[in-house]
Each structure stands twice: as structure tokens, then as C-alpha cells.
Amino acid sequence: MSNTNITPLRKPAEAAHPIHELISERWSPRAFSTRPVEHQKLHSIFEAARWAASAANFQPWSFIFAVKEHAEDHARILETLVPNNAGWAKEAPVLIITVAKLYDFAGREYHSYYDLGMAVENLVIQAGDLGLVVHQMGGFDADKARELFNIPAGYNALTVIALGYPGSADDLHPVLRERELAPRERKPLEEFVFEGSWKQAAPDAQA
Ligand SMILES: Cc1cc2nc3c(=O)[nH]c(=O)nc-3n(C[C@H](O)[C@H](O)[C@H](O)COP(=O)(O)O)c2cc1C
Questions:
Q1: Structure confidence by residue, pLDDT tens digits, 90-134
Q2: Whose CA is nearest to atom 21 of ligand 1?
Q3: 27-167: CATH homologous superfamily?
Q4: Ligand 1 geometric centre to CA of 138 (Å)
């Protein structure tokens, strides 16, 4: 069990160029404190998601959340997770299913997944500013989520998010503790930023 009085583990990005502190400090921990998340903070993170940009202002995102105090709802979200995720995410005080609406008013497929990602990134950055940590998970059963949470046709559950205050890596299984402490890695800019043409690296963007 995590206590509520620990010094959060920091794993700031080793950025090759200056970036905002909220971006460099964000990472995906698996250790959560038992401290509940205040409702006002939850409102703020969803408010941040609300103000994301979206194609044609379609706002095709929805969130289904459960707090640990509502044990049945929390357990139902946990049930959708693959065992490797459920093992640590069960300690997270808040679990959130993210859902994208697939079609616009004319029944056309839109940029729904992109827009949902934009909203989630807003949520993640706002959470960081409030001292919270977030771990997103694709490892879950979307069909089970549809069934357990009555998600209608035309909407797809995309991820589950674990949210809470940071906990202690000491409380994790040794394998997860090792991952928790491992350095964060990224491809260099020249592998994915091109100037003028595909695969043409921007010379002054390199680390
Ligand atoms: C869409 C998405 C799905 C992810 N799925 C999982 C998952 O199922 N289990 C997990 O432990 N981490 C998952 N992650 C976390 C990533 O592994 C993590 O973001 C990545 O390794 C980079 O680490 P960082 O977030 O600490 O910088 C997911 C992240 C995203 C954005």
C-alpha cells in the first residue's frame, strides 16, 4: 500500500531543446498514492479536456470515470484491463475510460481518434499542473467496456487512464519497480521531423 507522504519520483525528459516543464516532467508511473483525488481537481482535468481543439469543433470525446471510493464502478473498469495492467492499476484512485464518437452529424467518419488524443493530452497536462500523475493504457478489452458501461454503437472506447497522486516505487512488484526506475527514452528528432521532403532531416533540429 502506498502512503500519502512520499517524495514523487521524477523522470524529466532529457530534452535536446528547451520544452515546457509540464511536458518534460510528465511520465507514466505505475505507483499511485492511496490519497483520493479531490472532486474539484477532477472537474478541472475534464474542463481542460473540454477546451481541446477538434475538427469542426465536433468534440467527439467522452469519459467514463470511477473513483476508488465507488468500489463497484472502479472494479468494473479494472475488469476491462489486461492482467498486466490491472495488477498495478487497481491502486489508482481514479480510472477513466476514454471514448470517441466515430461519425459526424452527416454519418461521415471524422478525425475522432485524433481529437480524443488532443483532449486527453489537455487532461494529462492539467493533471500534471495539479500535482497528479496519469498512466494511459491501450491494454484493455474495448468490447467488454462497451458491454459493462453501455457504450452505444458509433462510439469506441480507446483507452483506460489511471489517475492519482504519485506513489512509491517501493510498493510495486520488483519487475514493475525496475521499469518504474528505468530511464525514459525517445527517438531523436531527425528520425521523425523532416524539412522539405520525406526523410530529409532538418539539419538544425538535431540533438
Ligand atoms: C495510447 C497509449 C496506450 C498505452 N498502453 C499502455 C498499457 O497498456 N500498459 C502500460 O503499462 N502502459 C501503456 N502506455 C504507456 C506507454 O508505455 C508510455 O507512455 C511510454 O512508454 C512512454 O513513457 P512515458 O509516458 O513515461 O514518457 C500507453 C500509452 C499510450 C499513449
A1: 999 999 999 999 998 889 998 999 999 999 999 999 999 999 999
A2: 28
A3: NADH Oxidase (3.40.109.10)
A4: 8
- Which sequence spans correspond to the domains of the chain? 27-167
Average pLDDT taken over every residue of the chain: 95
| Residue 170, helix vs strand vs coil | helix
Q: Whose CA is nearest to atom 29 of ligand 1?
A: 136
Is residue 207 scored above 70 in pLDDT?
no
Kindly list the protein residues whose Cβ atom lies closer than 6 A to any atom of ligand 1: 27-28, 85, 136-139, 159, 184
